[in-house]
Amino acid sequence: MKIRTNLLSGIIFGIISIVFILLVPSQVAVPTFNNGGPSPRIIPYIVLYGMLICSVALIIQSLVFKKERIVVLDFKIEKASLIVLVIMILFGIVMLNFGFIISVIVVLPILLFILRERKPFIYGFTIFGGIGVYYLFTKVFNITLPVFGG
């Protein structure tokens, strides 16, 4: 599969920036009282309009100036990356439904197994490290992570 990188990335990030520009008013509240300072929406807007301008530049560079880098994807080679992506999505789903610790105990060993890791120490280190991260965030940083039941 051949991909024209400038054109494809310009289109994808252009669409993403337009969608997020439309979402900013519903996601970032404006303070009730005007204190004379800039709105909290200013940084998201600067970033999103910058991203939109760069996306348009990439599309113009591809279509008008014919500057393009073509990448050939071989799905046999990219299969491992796609599997890791699916497992990370599974991690998020399990975490939201069953909690962070359950997702660490269930999904990360599956990821290690698929990536052909066979040393038991690594499995234990990953599980205990994930549990340690949970307690670090909840007890030290006071940041709540999903618990059992979402």
From TrEMBL:
Keywords: Membrane, Transmembrane, Transmembrane helix. The chain crosses the membrane at residues 7-30, 42-61, 82-115, 121-137. Coiled coil: none annotated. The keyword Membrane applies. It comes from the Bacteria. Residues 11-146 form the DUF1468 domain. InterPro entries: DUF1468 (IPR009936). The keyword DNA-binding does not apply. This is Tripartite tricarboxylate transporter TctB family protein.
